[in-house]
Amino acid sequence: MADRNSQPGPLGHAYDRPEVEVSIGPLGLPGTLVHPAGGQGIVLFAHGSGSSRLSPRNRLVAERLQRSGLGTLLFDLLQPEEAANRANVFDISLLAERLALATDWVRSQALRDAPIGYFGASTGAAAALVAETLTRHPIAAIVSRGGRPDLAGVALSRVRAPTLLIVGGDDHGVIELNEEALARLTCEKHLAIVPRAGHLFEEPGTLDQVVSLARDWFVPRLRQGGPNHATG
After folding, report:
1. Spatial distance between the Cα atoms of 153 and 116, rounded to a whole number of angstroms
2. What is the rounded CA–CA span in Å between residue 221 and residue 140?
3. Which position has the higher pLDDT, 83 or 92?
4. Per-residue pLDDT at 120 exceeds 90
């Protein structure tokens, strides 16, 4: 394990979590891993365009999920030189493949039996949905925050994991795209619209609502022995 990261977290205290290297073939992608409490699952975060594992919004969500006993893995889907190429940032197939391979890595980290969930933001939501159709491991639940699930394309109809789409009430245009994606999903699904929230949920209290919605979706589904839990 690498040095610990003690940068200030979004809740105002030091974000002191183990830094890891997520091994994907010849690549080593930096990440922050927190193991789940006994009997609980782990959520892998897929960041959106222009974001990274240091995203304060995703870190806040991760910290709050940890309080419920869930584990989290925040990691960069792209290396810095790859992220500098904007084409890679919007390459859903590439991002989804990386997330699926990271799922293999998680299974090798003494987490063989922990249920797995995906949390995707912006384009990361599409990557999470596509990755669910690629990975050989069952995914117990997916949550999209301000996502572009429509970019998952034909994979939408093949998604099996229960999927929650969270959109800001003032995120006009993206709401309609999420409604279209919801109609194409054939799994257990729900669209939650947070009133008076924009695309980044920067308005007071709106990110708290995202956390509550995500926690309530993940916790019952990422419990070992739960109805959506199976090992791969």
Report:
1. 23
2. 6
3. 92
4. yes
**First-to-final CA distance of the chain:** 26
Instruction: Judge contact between 129 and 149, C-beta under 8 A.
Output: yes
Q: Among 223, 211, 73, 231, which Cα is nearest to 143's?
A: 211
Tens-place pLDDT, residues 28-86: 998 999 999 989 999 999 987 656 677 788 899 999 999 999 999 999 898 888 888 88
How many residues does this entry show for the chain? 232
Give the pairing type, strands 19-24 and 14-17.
unpaired
The Cα 91–Cα 70 span in angstroms is 29
Tokens of 217: 């979706």
Say how far apart CA 200 and CA 57 lie, in whole Å: 8
Question: b vs e for 163-198, b when ≥16 Cβ sit within 10 Å of the residue's Cβ?
Answer: bbbbbbebbeebbebbeebbebbeeebebbebeebb
- With a CB cutoff of 8 Å and minimum separation 6, the contacts of 206 are 168, 194, 196, 197, 198
Phi, psi torsion values for 100, nearest 5 degrees: -65, -40
Estimate to the nearest angstrom the gap between the alpha carbon of 56 and the chain centroid.
Answer: 14
Written as six digits, the tokens of 227 are 């109805």
The contacts of residue 181 (CB under 8 Å, 6+ apart) are 149, 150, 152, 156, 165
- When pLDDT is cut at 50, 70 and 90, the band that residue 143 belongs to is very high
Whether 181 and 120 have beta carbons less than 8 Å apart is answered as: no
Q: Is the pLDDT of residue 138 over 50?
A: yes
